[in-house]
What does this fold into?
Amino acid sequence: MAKYVGAIDQGTTSTRFILFDEAGEVVTLARREHAQICPQPGWVEHDATEIWRNTLAVIDDALAKASAARSDLAAIGVANQRETAVLWDKATGAPLCNAIVWMDTRTEALVARFASDGGTDRLRARTGLPLASYFSGLKLVWLFENLPGARARAQNGEVLFGTIDSWLIWNLTGGPRGGRHVTDATNASRTQLMNLATLDWDEDILRLFDIPRACLPEIRSSSEFYGAVGGVPLTGAIGDQQGALLGQACLKPGEAKNTYGTGCFLLMNTGETPKISTKGLLTTLAYKLGESKPVYALEGSVAIAGALVQWLRDNLGIIDSSEAVEPLARSVADNGDVYFVPAFSGLYAPRWRADARGVIAGLTRFSNKGHIARAALEAAAYQTREVLAAMVADSGAALEDLRVDGGMAANELLMQFQADILGVPVVRPRSLETTALGAAYAAGLAVGFWRGPEDIAAHWRPGRRWNPVMTALERERLVASWEKAVERSLGWAE
It folds into this structure.
C-alpha cells in the first residue's frame, strides 16, 4: 500500500521534492538551486532545461533519503512559480530560449502599448488582472515579437507555450513522446489570457495579443489525473501561492495567508464568486478540486521580500548567508530611522508603479549595516500591511489573524514586527512547507489518499503565535516614515 504523496515544489530559486505522510507531515525533502540569469537591467531568466534536470534529481534524492520506492507513492503533485513563461519545441523538447521569470520587466513597453486604448484595467473584468509586466501573456507576446518565426510555428502546433507547471507535466508524462500539454486553472488565471467566468482561454484576448490557441495548454482542474510518472499517478497541479492557501487550510471566505518567499504573496479566500478589486489587488482562482465548483481569491503580490535578503548577501556582501540577517538585524535596537523600499522591479500591489526603483532612505553617519539589515526585513512587513489594508477594504472582512509561511516566516524578529505593524496576531503553522503541502493535497484528494477538505482542515496545526505589542502611536509614526520613503522611490524610471 502506498505510504506517501510526493510534491514537486518548483520555485523561483530552487526545485524541491517533498514526501508527505497521511497526516500531512514532512517525511523527507531534497532541494537543488538553479541559476538566476540577469542579462540586462530588469531582465530575469531561468534555464528551463536546468529546472527539468533538477526536478528529476530531487525526486531521486528524496526517495533515496527515505529509502522509498516509487511504488510507495500514491500520487505526485506539482506546485510552481506561476507567471514564468516557457516556449519550447514540441518535436525536440528544447526551449527556444531561457524562460522569462515572473519578476522580469522587459514587457513594460507592451503594457504601455496595450494600455493606450482602455487603460491598464481594460482586461480586469474578464481576467481579474491589470495590464502589468508581471503576467505571462505579455511575456509570450514579447517572445513572438523577438524570436523570428516563433508565432508562425506556434500557429502550426510546432511550438508549445506554458508556465512551469505545463513544462514539467509535459516532460514528466513523456515529453516529445506523447507528453500531456496541460495547465491547471490557477496557473492559467495568471497568464491574463483566461476568462475567470468560463475557466477557458478568452478568444477576444487571444486576438488582441495575436496569440494562436494551438500553442496553449488545455486548462484542467487542480486535482485530477494528468498522466503517470514511472507508474505513479500525476494528479495535482497548482500555482505556488494557491498551493500555500490550500496547505494553510484557508478553506472559508475571509481566511488569509501570507507567504514570505522571494516575494510576498497575500491571498484571501473569497468563496465561489470572483470579487473584482477596486483597491489595486488581483482577482485570481484559489483552487478547483476535481468536479467541485471553483473557489476564488483576492491577492496582493509584493515583488521583493526574501530576494532582498539574497541581495544583501550576494550584491552587498554584508551577510554570508541568508540566515545571518536576523542576528545582524538584532544587533541594533531599532531601524535607526532607516527605511528600505525594494522596488527593484517597480512596486506591485496595491500601488502598481512600474516607474519605482529601490531606495534606502534616512541614512545618517549613525547608520550601520545592522540598521540596513533591519530595514530590509521590515520592508516585507510594511508592504504586507499595505496589501492587507487594501484586502480588508475590498472584501469587507476584518482579519482575525494572519497565517504565515515561507522561508522568511522562520525569522522571529520579522514575525513580531509584522504583528506589531498590522495590529493583528500572526500565526505560523507547525510545518512551513505549506506550498508543497497544497500540491500534495490536490494530488492526494484525486486518488483518495485524503477524503476531502475536512482532512485538510484537520491537519492544520498552529506552531507559533505572535501578538502585537506596539502602541498605536508608534505604529502610526513608523508607517508615516515608510510612506515618505515610498514617495521617494516613485518616478525614477521613465
Remarks:
- Residues 369-395 form the longest helix (27 residues).
- Residues 43 and 104 are 5 Å apart (CA to CA).
- The mean pLDDT is 95.
- The longest strand covers residues 26-33.
